[in-house]
């Protein structure tokens, strides 16, 4: 099961980074006309290139799918992830 969780108070999905002092990778979103819009993804620089962004994206997409929702991709990273993973086309809108 994904370690990604939704933090609605901060408008982001979070992936705790193992072995760090509480650092996270995060996918920020907004809600527009009832749709979840992914707007920005951040992975701390020192952890880049380790696949955390992809792990985060997969967790976000899986959570949205489990809720029966849809996402709009305004984040270039999430758009690139989706281009490599068309199996998520059922939840991507716009």
Task: Outline the secondary-structure elements.
Layout: E1 5-7, E2 12-16, E3 24-32, E4 35-42, H1 52-67, E5 71-73, H2 76-84, E6 92-93
Parallel strand pairs: 4-5, 5-6
Antiparallel strand pairs: 1-2, 2-3, 3-4
Please describe what this structure looks like.
With 94 residues, this protein is an alpha/beta fold. The chain has a six-stranded mixed sheet, with helices on one face. Helix 2 links the parallel strand 5 and strand 6. The longest helix has 16 residues. The termini are far apart. The model has no long low-confidence stretch (mean pLDDT 94).
- The name of the CATH architecture is 3-Layer(aba) Sandwich
In the predicted model, the low-confidence regions spanning at least 5 consecutive residues are none
Question: What is the first-to-last residue Cα distance?
Answer: 28 Å
How many beta-strand elements? 6
Oligomer: single chain
> Which radius of gyration do the C-alpha atoms yield?
12 Å
Number of helices: 2
Content of β-strand: 25-35%
Number of domains: 1
Briefly note the structural class of the backbone. Answer: alpha/beta
Strand order of the largest sheet: 1-2-3-4-5-6
């Amino acid at each position: 099961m994904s370690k990604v969780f939704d933090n609605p108070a901060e408008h982001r999905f979070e992936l705790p980074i193992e072995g760090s002092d509480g650092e996270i990778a995060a996918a920020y979103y907004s809600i527009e006309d009832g749709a979840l819009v992914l707007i920005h993804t951040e992975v701390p620089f020192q952890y880049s290139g380790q696949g955390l962004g992809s792990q985060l994206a997969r967790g976000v997409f899986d959570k949205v799918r489990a809720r029966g929702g849809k996402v709009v991709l305004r984040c270039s990273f999430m758009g690139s992830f989706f281009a490599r993973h068309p199996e998520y086309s059922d939840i991507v809108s716009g």
